[in-house]
Design brief:
This protein is α+β, with helices and mostly antiparallel strands and about 210 residues long. The protein is built from 7 helices and 8 strands, in the order H-H-E-E-H-E-E-H-H-H-E-E-H-E-E. A hairpin with a 6-residue loop joins strand 5 and strand 6.
């Protein structure tokens, strides 16, 4: 687990606009938050800084977050909220509190889309999602109520792939896999179904839609 934000960084996070997540702070503070994945710099002038979905969760006092550990591997904890990608060795406990956390993160992501997509569209992924593919796809799935896999049981698993801007979604239940595809398409992802060459197991490839 990484160390929590410094007191100065925490003050910047706590003072963020409650709706947009816009930040005010020194260049060093803002740069440090960007480096930690808690904020991003808007690509258009005046290049303001905003909280990422993880930053919003830290602001609300959430201190756990899985981070992808590499292709085909379960994520490791980093100290920031993230949706479950499936297969974590120590997953967060399900229940009403977790559902509220995920719902809040999803609303924050929709606001991020509105603020950063050039036309303000919320029906397709934004730049942050394109650089955090696994976490973004997992958030769409968990927010829609799909069941992530535990360490040793069935459910969805979202993993990196060698293809640019594409993640793989594995789900042993065929009906649940099709439901995952429908959720991702509704969330603005392009989805196609494939089979593993050796086993014939079906899986999804999903990429953020651009238009």
């Amino acid at each position: 687990m990484t160390r929590p934000p410094s007191a100065a960084q925490r003050r910047v996070i706590d003072a963020a606009d409650p709706v947009t997540g816009r930040l005010r702070g020194t260049e060093a503070q803002l740069a440090a938050l960007v480096k930690r994945g808690l904020a991003f710099r808007h690509p258009r002038p005046p290049h303001d800084h905003f909280l990422t979905p993880e930053g919003h969760r830290v602001r609300q006092g959430i201190t756990r977050a899985p981070e992808p550990a590499g292709p085909g591997k379960a994520p490791a904890s980093t100290g920031v909220f993230a949706a479950r990608t499936g297969g974590e060795p120590d997953p967060p406990q399900p229940g009403p509190a977790r559902r509220r956390e995920v719902h809040s993160a999803w609303l924050g992501l929709l606001e991020l889309r509105r603020m950063t997509n050039p036309d303000g569209a919320v029906d397709r992924p934004c730049g942050w999602e394109r650089t955090h593919l696994v976490r973004a796809a997992a958030l769409a799935l968990e927010a829609a109520g799909h069941r992530p896999a535990g360490p040793d049981d069935g459910g969805y698993r979202v993993r990196e792939t060698p293809q640019p801007e594409a993640v793989a979604v594995h789900e042993p239940d065929g009906e649940a896999l099709r439901a995952c595809a429908a959720t991702l398409e509704e969330a603005g992802w392009q989805v196609s179904e494939h089979r593993e060459p050796r086993t014939g197991t079906r899986y999804l490839l999903a990429s953020p839609r651009r238009a």
